[in-house]
């Protein structure tokens, strides 16, 4: 039997940042699709989060993945179904289930993000 969070997982793609020289001698950033993974992405709808959004802060999401998914602070990923991009805002290594556990998950927070 799978856990509820597993039933809520959707396809996502890690976005790799690539810097290339431009025609004017400077640099530009491009993004390339990386590995795919599954994630349950839930918006924080607490009173505090909603008040912060009204004050101009970004929306906060909790992202749940299998503990083997290599998300790190400030990684960017795209939700495949709608193209929404998120940037990781916490360290997933702090919120992983132990290897001996029968529950296989890691959690981090993320924000909606528009790549440069």
Question: What features would you describe in this structure?
Answer:
The chain has a single domain (4-112), classed as Bacteriophage SPP1 head-tail adaptor protein (Thrombin, subunit H, Beta Barrel), CATH 2.40.10. The longest helix has 8 residues, at 47-54. The model has no long low-confidence stretch (mean pLDDT 88). The protein has a six-stranded antiparallel beta barrel. It is 10% helix and 43% strand. The chain is built from two helices and six strands. It is globular. It has 116 residues and is mainly β.
Please give a handful of descriptors for the protein shown:
six-stranded antiparallel beta barrel; mainly beta; Thrombin, subunit H
Question: Could you write a compact summary of the structure shown?
Answer:
This protein is mainly beta and 116 residues long. It is 10% helix and 43% strand.
Helices and strands in order, then pairings?
Elements: H1 4-7, E1 10-21, E2 27-43, H2 47-54, E3 60-65, E4 76-79, E5 85-88, E6 106-112
Antiparallel strand pairs: 1-2, 1-4, 2-3, 3-6, 4-5, 5-6
């Amino acid at each position: 039997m799978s856990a509820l969070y597993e039933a809520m997982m959707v396809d996502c793609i890690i976005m790799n940042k690539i810097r290339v020289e431009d025609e004017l001698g400077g640099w530009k950033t491009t993004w390339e699709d990386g590995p795919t993974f599954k994630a349950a992405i839930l918006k924080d709808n607490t009173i505090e989060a909603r008040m912060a959004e009204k004050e101009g802060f970004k929306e906060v999401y909790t992202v749940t993945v299998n503990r083997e998914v290599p998300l790190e602070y400030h990684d960017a990923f795209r939700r495949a179904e709608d193209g929404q991009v998120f940037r990781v805002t916490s360290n997933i290594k702090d919120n992983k289930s132990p290897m001996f556990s029968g529950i296989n998950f890691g959690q981090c927070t993320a924000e909606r993000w528009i790549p440069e």
